[in-house]
Amino acid sequence: xxxxxxAFAQMGEENAFAVLARAAxxxxxxxxxxxxxxxxxxxxxxxxxxxAAVKALRDGEHGYTDATGIAPLRExxxxxxxxxxxxxxxxxxxLIVPGGKVTMFMAIMMFGENGADIVYPDPGFPIYRSMIxxxxxxxxxxxVREANGFAFSAEEALQxxxxxxxxxxxxxxxxPTGGVTPKHEIDKLVAGLAQWPNAAILSDEIYGQLxxxxxxxxxxxxxxxxxxxLILLDGWSKTYAMTGWRLGYSVWPKxxxxxxxxxxxxxxxxxxxxxxxxxxxxxxxxxxxxxAMRAEFDRRREAVTAGLNRLPGVRxxxxxxxxxxxxxxxxxxxxxxxxxxALLQDAGVATIxxxxxxxxxxxxxxxxxxNSLENxxxxxxxxxDFLSRPARAASGL
Length: 397
Ligand SMILES: Cc1ncc(COP(=O)(O)O)c(C=O)c1O
Known about the structure:
397 residues; 13% strand; 12 strands; binds pyridoxal-5'-phosphate; three-stranded antiparallel beta sheet
């Protein structure tokens, strides 16, 4: 019998896509579903970005590009990083990839193998663990705690380090919690990592431009002492409402950038040419839409947090970044995953159960507030009704 590589049995997935499919199925059956499950902006890509892609297609940009991405786009990324983070980046260290996810795939493939440890946030983006297990490395979850406002703790992270640790994955602002790790905690972590010079660092900063309450995003790129082992993951998906374009970038240390390029050549060759021209327009054009989206998310964040805290048995810290709330639902009497299923089935509200983001996600739900204020209010009302029905609450025990 033909046998596929058994490592594939270890590969997981992202339940957000399964919930999206289930919600779409219920909608096809005529149900009114409010989708707070999927993590993508509900805005359209700003028109000047769309126009740049259309123009590129009309101008005949139909061929392969350099595997690392077109030079003007890599230069635009370097300029943008300089403008936002005041860091010097060579365009030669920038790799344009088909979506932020590809950078984590590459980094985990590069450092994961039998005998290696990879430290990653839990609850965290599910693909981290899935890919770690696929490579045969040992997943070492770094707990992200509500008591810390879902910031990671440098002390806890450093306690997990051993000589086997080959890669440490960090994510702030974070999915699924909306947590933002403050500068002093990142300073402490970077100082402590000096003791572990053989561990690479992957910093997933895809939500870096979505912080609130005047918080300034602290990038790991700001620490010159780790630049020779830091991989930056960023992209256009969240900042410019471009999830469907599949466009992201990474910044690699010189020692590894050619390995990343070869991974590109061996898999997707290059990113869609027209999308790359759109990426230039996004970075070089007006940033007003970024501010406008952030302001709108901020309003929704207030509404969703206040609304959740009014629900019986539910409490929610105020998220400081991204567009997710991660309420604690452990006192509703429900386990998180059955609660999320029942909310979708019975109340028509799609959310994701915290355990889909790791064992430390039990007792929580993830709600994406990338939906209109009106829908958020309707969803909260439905949750209120649902939780007020005694029979329902009991069945979740
Ligand atoms: C933390 C985190 N990293 C990376 C990604 C991947 O982004 P992209 O859609 O650009 O692949 C996501 C998307 O949800 C995310 O939440």
